[in-house]
Amino acid sequence: MATETCDPPLFASVWCHQYWTQAKFWIADKHPSGLRHLVCHYDEGGYKNEPSFAAAIPDDWTEAEIRDLLLRPTRPDAPYPPWEVPARVYGSETLFRWWRGEKSQ
Questions:
Q1: Which of 19, 47, 92, 104 has its CB surrounded by the most CB atoms within 10 Å?
Q2: pLDDT 10s digit of each residue in the chain, 105 long?
Q3: 39 φ, ψ to 5°?
Q4: How do the domains of the chain map onto residue ranges?
């Protein structure tokens, strides 16, 4: 008997030098808030050794823009990966283009 799952497919996987681990990403379309969410799982733990991180994705963002964020270069001494900057630096639950001077909503 085949087992069906409702899990979204893997969206991306990148090396996270801030936490020295692999970061795997999914886009969750069915979040209780009604907004899509970027969900990250760290193979070896992330910020404060938490294994996962999630942030709301603005409605106008395309998958290409999300990939650009994931691959955005950061300073070697940056304490957070680019997808965590809105939450960790600005206290935002929603992603935004902080590198372009956008403000948190």
A1: 19
A2: 444 455 789 999 999 999 999 999 999 987 888 899 999 999 999 999 999 999 999 999 999 999 999 999 999 899 999 999 999 999 999 999 999 999 987
A3: -115, 130
A4: 14-100
